[in-house]
Design goal:
Elements (H helix, E strand, L loop, with lengths): L2 H12 L11 H18 L2 E8 L6 E3 L6 E8 L9 E2 L1 E4 L2 E4 L7 E8 L15 H19 L9 H25 L15
Antiparallel strand pairs: 1-7, 2-6, 3-4, 3-7, 5-6
C-alpha cells in the first residue's frame, strides 16, 4: 500500500471522503501517517545487512551510507569465521569503532532502519498496514477534538467529546498493538564467543 492508498484508507475510517469538503487536509493526514510510520519503525524496524570495507590498521569505519539508521545490532569481522566473530562496537555519529583493527577487508554490519511509505511504495509488511491506519486516525481524531473546542458545531459540545473519546480509544488500541510487536518487548537469545 503506497501513501495515496494509505491516505484513502485513513479517510475511510474517519468518514472524511468528500473531496470538496475535507475536514483534514492531505498535509494533515500525511503528517499523522508519517508520525505513526516513525513510531512503528522504532518498534518494528527493517533489518538490514551491509558489508563495509575496513581501513588497514584502523578500528573505525564510516557508516554514513546507512540511510535511515536506527541502531546497529552487531558487526561481524572478519566475515566467515566459524563460529562467527562479533566485534564489540561503539557508535559515534556516523563513525563505528570496533574492538579489532581493520585490515582492508569488509566488515558485515547488521542494523535496523526506518520503514518508508511514499507515493511509489512501502516497506511496511501488509499485516501491519491497518495498524498504521489505526494510529493515524487516532491522532487525527484527537487533534480534531482540540480544534472544535471553541467553535460552533451542529453537534455542539458533544462533537469535541466524541472526537476525543473515539480518538483516545483508537490510540489505546494502537499503543497496545505496537507494544505487542515491539522488538523491545521480546526476549532475544544471543551467544557470546570467547577467544580461542
Amino acid at each position: 500500500m503506497n501513501l495515496t492508498e494509505m491516505r484513502t484508507r485513513v479517510r475511510e475510517d474517519l468518514q472524511d471522503e468528500d473531496e470538496a469538503n475535507y475536514r483534514w487536509t492531505n498535509d494533515q493526514v500525511d503528517g499523522a501517517i508519517e508520525r505513526v510510520v516513525r513510531e512503528f519503525s522504532l518498534a518494528y524496524p527493517q533489518m538490514e545487512s551491509t558489508d563495509i570495507a575496513t581501513t588497514d590498521g584502523s578500528r573505525e569505519f564510516d557508516i554514513s551510507s546507512l540511510e535511515g539508521l536506527i541502531s546497529v545490532e552487531f558487526v561481524e569481522f572478519p566475515i566467515g569465521e566459524d563460529p562467527p566473530c562479533y566485534q564489540r562496537v561503539e557508535l559515534w555519529k556516523t563513525t563505528l569503532y570496533m574492538q579489532d583493527k581493520g585490515n582492508g577487508d569488509d566488515a558485515r554490519v547488521r542494523w535496523y532502519k526506518d520503514h518508508t511509505l511514499d507515493a511509489e511504495a512501502s516497506t511496511i509488511p501488509t499485516q501491519f498496514e491497518e495498524l498504521i491506519v489505526l494510529g493515524a486516525t487516532g491522532y487525527l481524531a484527537a487533534s480534531a477534538s482540540a480544534y472544535t473546542v471553541d467553535r460552533a458545531s451542529i453537534a455542539g459540545k458533544w462533537a469535541t467529546i466524541n472526537f476525543l473519546k473515539w480518538g483516545q480509544e483508537r490510540l489505546n488500541r494502537y499503543e497496545k498493538k505496537l507494544k505487542a510487536i515491539s522488538r523491545n518487548s521480546h526476549v532475544i537469545s544471543k551467544e557470546f564467543y570467547t577467544d580461542a
